[in-house]
Write the structure tokens for this entry.
Amino acid sequence: MTRPEEKKRPTHLGFLTALGDPARGVIGGFLVLNLVGRPTEFHCTAPVRPNRAQEILYGATLEGFLCGEQIAQALVGRTKTELAAILTNNPNILTAGNSLKAPLAMVFRRSASCATPGDEEKYAVWEEKTGRNAPFGGNAARDRRIDDENWTSEEAREGESNSQRRSFFYDAFERTPPTPGVDYSAWRTVAKGRNRLALPTDFVGSDGRAVGVDEISARLDLFFKSIDSVEPFERIRLAVEEAQKSG
Amino acid sequence: MTSETSGTNEPKRRESARESAGANSDDVRFSIPVRSWNRRVAAPKTLSVLCPRRLLDENGRRLEIETKSLRLGARPGDVRVFAIPVDSRKNVASVERNVESFYFFPQDEPDADALEKELNGAKKANGESGAKGEKDGDSNGRAEFDGAAATKKSVVPEFFEAPENPTRIRVPNDVVKMEDRLGYLLQPPLETWLGRRLLEMPFEPFGYQKQGVAFLYGSQFAVLADEMGLGKTMQAITTIRLLFRSGECRRVLLVCPKPLVTNWKREFEFWAPEIPVQVIEGKSDRRKWLWRLPNAPLRIANYELLNRDREFYAPEGEDPRVVFDLVVLDESQRIKNKANVTSEAARAIPRRRNWALTGTPVENSAEDLVGIFEFLSPGYLKSGLKPSEISKTVGEYILRRTKDKVLTDLPPKLIRDAHVDLTPEQYESYRMAQEEGEIRLNEMGDSVTLSHAFELIIRLKQICNFDPATGESAKLDRLIADLEEVASSGRKAIVFSQWVATLERLRPKLARFGPVEYSGRTPSKERDAVIDKFRNDPNCHVILMSYGAGSVGLNLQFAEYVFLFDRWWNPAVEDQAINRAHRIGAAGPVTVTRFVSVATIEEKIDRILQEKRLLSEAILSDAKGLNYSMGLSQDDIFGLFNLKAPRSLKK
């Protein structure tokens, strides 16, 4: 049997996102980077709009269907590069679950203020008032961060939201369940520098071997030495806008 | 449903490397000495190369090797080997003899094992960080170098974190193909490149310097016109370094004034130690060989050589042996006159992209910029445009920042005009010379020329410096008084003059201040020693410099006083001179004293210089409504003597 460390490790990382909304069309972008952050592949979709039948059929899970099943599957299927993982910043893509060729992980940036103990307290107040729990499993105390520097205690108590800020936690909390079709217990959050990632706990590779959270985390550490886990999504956004402009 | 766009040519390059890496029975292994490597590997070492014979062409003249079988602590796949000339395909061993030096660079083809090792090292180092890191951060020689930035890197972060607003590569407007535009947009921000350990930077660049690098990186032609002292050298070197690493450049030529060659060489050693620098110098045969050397990544030539060596780099009637991927002209105001031989020679250099570096793109007139753009992109900028039109046309291709905008923490520059009354004897000599001169000019009538007027100007300016009859000098008296104060406080001063003769007269008079001289008469080999003495000898308080030799490229930020003993013809050169001291690394305020003799031609010239400054601002800052002057026009020159330019000249 081949030991994991003997297997040639993947030296590329995928970044997958979806921009826009169903009404105007959802555009998918997929960027593959090497270990030092240079692009090796880029794919994007034309705007995807659901038809009436899909809207009725999928209802609240429509965005998950478009992003996770249509866009993610199509884009990731284009690459032949072996990927260490695929990162996304769009929770709707999580509906793709473990169906992609590499572990799918969610990434979000914590604002500087989130590291303060006060945020834990705010979150606890909010949790108590709303009766909602952390969507991800794992260390709840560690995960009790609110990625919203504008989140005041008053807002927390009232459970109000700022719809302009769509960080992952925020987004997840606003939904019941946070994103339809996503089993949050299948992810565990880990901190990577100032950013946080939700990693899948039960990914099985194409060779049938289970890849645990720790292994995925170790794989990603190699990349995050040179790459910011959030910044490449901005590259995708710029490239998608450019592609749209060029028709 | 999907549309695919390849935003980069990376995969192609990798495939090519992979194909050539495969060993077969035709391959031959040989060893050659490595002349240059980065700072982590001591040179010279022996490099073992697997050389695939099948890559030889029919005649066996050139061999392009791209192989992964390098063994030197280098990571497989991150090395590119440049073309090597060979004599015959039958004698592969001759490769070894023909290769004087073997250059290669780490490319952006990373290796997971090496990164992991580095990662583990970083974790360990971070665990031990603290006092040591702080100590490292304090020890630096940054004041020695142009453009050195604020802090030295001390601790390797475990995770790279991009800033909130990272510096992205600029997408040039003239790039229209979508794939190409995406290629720029998808590149990592500059902080990603500079932040990782693969590209070591001696100092963290300032934000505006990163923007300068991002500007140059994406530019096929560009003028980096930052004010002197903001680090144009560092920005150009860093961009060249990135271009080498990304494989976009293999052969770069840098052209600078001859006195700056050693300075550039030193700056490359500091900012990009992995890039081997080849200075084009020596006898004709050697220069020819250096120009045509196919595997030298970076060459430095001086302007004086360009015209002499034209047949070497651009032979008439045949294809050039070497086409440069990039040509950089430092102090590019040297080619402002598009009709002069240097300008023509520069335009003849075979090249794919080019940049111009200058702190003074507009010295005399808007035509200066036309001359520079004639090299950068022939025909792009037409003559005769208004300043506002020029500004609009070239705005995208010129990046200019000034110290007051980007270096708010740079010590202030205090400029004071010292109005000096000539001594009675000096004034008498001046008056007589002026009257005689004006009478003579009048008598010449329409046969008078500009050179006649210039002769008189120079004569009068020289009298303002020293009385030819008695040797008296009001300026000297004032200078000595000021230097007493400078020397007693242990500080250093630079004294500029237009004439070497003036410097030579000053030297014995200033003997007590331990003066050294740096002028056109100082042999090239002695120039570095002169600067070192001025820098390190505590008894040497003054350096006497001519504008021509000392106004560009030197870093003298340890001097806090600058004296302009006489005035140059245009303010840009004066600014260059002042900025030898007032630049990044300056420890304290720089005091500039400009001597102006009262009631003389110097006062009139001073007024014209002020107007020239306005012209430069009108073009570079797109300031509208400025009443600018075209500088020392014929009317200006004759107006200095209350004369009108003769009609024959006006025609």
Observations:
- The first helix of chain B runs from residue 10 to 21.
- The first strand of chain B starts at residue 2 and ends at 4.
